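Chapter summary example: a protein plus guanosine-5'-diphosphate.
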Amino acid sequence: MKSVYKLSRRFIHLQRYYSSLANSNADTTIYSLSSGHGKCGVSVIRVSGPRTKHALQTLISPKYEPKARHAYLKSFYHPQTKEVIDKGLVLWFPGPYSFTGEDSCEFQVHGSLAVIAAMLDALGRIPGLRPAGAGEFTKRAFYGGKLDLTEVEGLADLIHSETEAQRKQAMLQSSGTLSRLYDNWRKHLISCAAHLEAYIDFAEEENIEDDVVQKLNKELRLLISEIRDHLNDQRQGEMLRNGVRTAIIGAPNVGKSSFLNMICQREVAIVTPMAGTTRDIIESMHNFGGYPVIFSDTAGLRKQTQDAVELKGISKARECIQNADLILLIADARDLMKHLKVDNQIMLFDYEKAYLQQLDLDADALADKRVKLVANKIDLLTTLERKKLSQIENLLCLSCKEPATDDVQQFLQGFEGLLQELCGQPSAENPRITHARYRQQLERCIEYLNIFLNEYAPDIFPDTAISAQKLRNALKCIERITGHVSCDDILDVIFKDFCIGK
Ligand code: GDP
């Protein structure tokens, strides 16, 4: 089939191939320390590229014939001094069965600064070898077709993961859960585009079914609905990856800084009886039951202040509220008690609204955020008052000054439940969007598909070739996520965050 589409695909492959040559200098052999810096029991030095075997033989013996994927204990010699540098394990991974897809090896040596320096010096003296740049091993794996961009980003997230849920999500993504989903959509779009092109080329001939257009429309509508479901995820994956941004807000002196200190179990923020002490946003990252939370302690919100620095702090607090995923609204339990009526539930809702108004915040503007009310200073209540408060559903009660183990435990349980709701559970069956760029491209993809469907209704008889371009644009959006199209701009951003040796 003389299809423009096929030609353009071929062009894309060629483009990626030449781009890979330009970008990764694949004819050079790279080496680097892949384990962490500093003294440790064992360090791993990686080598990848066509001269890997030569490097192995130079450091071990010219006659050494390594056995693929087996570990051997060997002495490593410096090529110039001929002295033994260290004794350690060597593993040989001939391409294409290696991480990068190239010939690669790993030296596992003692993790002393002197051993590592001598090994790197020895490798640097072998012609054709050079130190690896940041993320260069992974870049080679990408260009070698071993990983797509979602897997590359999953790997970067795995390296940076700090909590158990982050690890799970990154592990799933790096092993291809998102890649498979997007690749299915990509293949589906390729097949739709191919059918359309066949229709353009051979519409007059008998072997093309009449209902191609109807079938295409139906399939694309189904695809749009699948992508929409995927997009409609309350940003759970992104929140888990980036941490749940939690703003601690409230009137001055209600105990916001004390709350942050209690959670962090150290003095992160200054606590004083004077109103208006916190001006800058104080941030602190925490792990709650495997979920990452970034707390921001903010300036107390009040209308009646002329202090220029405090006003600046209040403006920063408002900005922080806008960017937050979750808002912990700290109130003084005594103030809350004043509003207590017979029907506690209604009271809570009214109180929250009135309190937000008092802070000059519009409850409606916060509608897309989770707001959780926390009643602090319960140590200043009578036993009866405490009992009454504890009966209110959905209210977290605390004393940051005299935290009782039970109250803290109850607070932590409630808070972890909230985080679970916000971030969900990473699963292989339901891979989630973890990067804003996926969301942007998927939204654009839907836009193109909708334009195509509007232009290409069976009863409109549009200019098919022009409409086909919309379909190709939709496909390109998915391919920009996975890296199937040339996307050097994205690559630079992604690999910039990788460490050397990965
Ligand atoms: P912020 O201005 O909202 O950050 O409030 P701070 O954390 O600076 O606390 C203001 C004052 O309230 C300080 O004197 C704290 O010791 C006191 N405070 C904070 N939490 C509690 C609490 O649970 N009980 C009591 N009695 N005092 C508290």
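Key point: The two ends are 43 Å apart (CA to CA).
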